[in-house]
């Protein structure tokens, strides 16, 4: 039996893009029931650790430019899901946190997201997560070496 041709980088990019778009579409369908956008979910997800995060870290985690993030966080503040406070260690920075209402909302939508997304199987999920973390680490290292 002939060996298949080696995979091309565009094949991997195609698969990653397709998987991300399908997963995002499915996630958004679950979030729509609660009137939550994918970007808001990313912000709430980061803030759910309770540590408080500066706006630069939130923008990076949510994959949003600063101006877009500011509008989104303003909206989340208006909904009483998020609040901002001055960073006690660096008074020039602002930290975002979940409000108690935001924590309750996050726990509920997090359960709905987990219930609404298909699972490959525990070992496959762990394998995929590990491979994706390696890929991200390699890409970040390559970008840092190229920039430096």
From TrEMBL:
Tell me which residues make up the HTH marR-type domain. Answer: 9-137
- Keywords from the named record: DNA-binding, Transcription, Transcription regulation
Q: Which Gene3D superfamilies match?
A: Winged helix-like DNA-binding domain superfamily/Winged helix DNA-binding domain (1.10.10.10)
What InterPro entries does the database record attribute to this sequence?
Answer: HTH_MarR-typ (IPR000835), MarR/SlyA-like (IPR039422), WH-like_DNA-bd_sf (IPR036388), WH_DNA-bd_sf (IPR036390)
Q: Would the keyword Ribonucleoprotein turn up in this protein's UniProt record?
A: no
Which species is this record about?
Streptomyces shaanxiensis
Q: Pfam families attached here?
A: MarR_2 (PF12802)
Residues spanning the signal sequence: none
Protein's name in the database: HTH marR-type domain-containing protein
